[in-house]
Amino acid sequence: MKEKIESILQEISIFSAQNKEQVEEYRIKWLGKKGDVTLLFEDFKTIAPDQKREFGAKLNELKNKAQEKINYLKEHFENIEVDSSSTKDLSLPASPITSIGAQHPIHLVKNEISKIFEDIGFTLSEGREIEDDWHNFSALNTPEDHPARDMQDTFYVQTNPEIVLRTQTSSVQVHLMENNKPPIRTISPGRVYRNETVSARSHCQFHQVEGLYIDTNVSFADLKQTLLYFAQRFFGAETKIRLRPSFFPFTEPSAEVDVSCSICNGSGCTICKHSGWLEIMGCGMVDPQVLGNCGIDAAKYTGFAFGMGIERIAMLKYKVTDIRLFFENDVRFLKQFQSA
Ligand code: DAH
């Protein structure tokens, strides 16, 4: 009896029907009045009482398997019938697409910034979001215990203090200088993370674009002219820029870049806090120490770098007052950036 059960089980598992008549044929073969499974239930009556328990369970399982397979195949062929009997006219033109997706505003701004720099010879590059301490901090003149580390609250990966979620795209600079010979002229957009409380003005994840230009004779004047070119293409031809002295560990000298407020044209409004200026990025001449850390001969080469937050620029461009909107995926917000 055991072998018989096994062989019917095997037959059920490999059985596949060509049409619904064949399904019915097998239903009768297995479960009909004189079907194989039904007959086994007859044999069961003659089995020794101490074996009834074991075989009873097996037989029930066999019956269920057969029934399940039949049901499944029956349904399958019924569905096919419904499909082919419906009166669809396949030659009709497709119905027009009435709603198309929108590009995310961060994506739009990232592309716009990238395009402007690509037009003046910058290549596009990318780093990694999970970074080691060297590339995110130490090579950038920010050794452990350096007070500048406090400026950027860091997420560490698991409990390894050597591995971080990058806090800045400046880390890409290090990879680029380690792996390429000057001239290097590239921009690197990407996501960064900081352990900050989420509010309307700050988030624990955001995006930056990093710029780097290393060559012989690169000067601060080149930096200023490049940034003016960018500001006027992005914010309008009348835009002015101003550079205020600042500090970053990896640049010397360093500056903060302001653009004249594109909302009030410099006359003063709530967005620019009545100053007429909007701060948009940090920049500076790459510190010779950083060049050396990355294997670039600081006696021969100089360079500039800059970094800006994409959300900040997008908020100014689209007059968005809450950074959280960029991460909530609320379609009422996103569909406003519908492309044509
Ligand atoms: N990494 C800086 C930040 O996240 C921004 C920055 C400042 C980047 C000056 C630079 C730079 O390349 O030169 O605040």
Number of strands: 10
Which molecules are bound besides the chains?
Answer: 3,4-dihydroxyphenylalanine
The biggest sheet, with number of strands, parallel, antiparallel or mixed sense and barrel status, is: 7 strands, mixed
Report Rg. Answer: 34 Å
CATH-level-4 superfamily name of the largest domain: Bira Bifunctional Protein, Domain 2
Q: Which shape, going by the Cα principal axes?
A: elongated
Given the structure, what is the number of helices? 12
CATH topology (level 3) name of the largest domain:
BirA Bifunctional Protein, domain 2
Average pLDDT for all residues: 91
Beta-sheet strand percentage?
15-25%
- Fraction of residues in H or I helices: 40-55%
Structural class comes to alpha+beta
Order of helices and strands: HHHHHEEHEEHEEHEEEHEHHH
Assembly type of the chains comes to: single chain
Strand order of the largest sheet: 1-5-6-10-9-8-7
* CATH architecture term of the largest domain: 2-Layer Sandwich
Unreliable stretches (pLDDT < 50, length at least 5) are none
Distance between the termini: 72 Å
CATH class category label of the largest domain? Alpha Beta
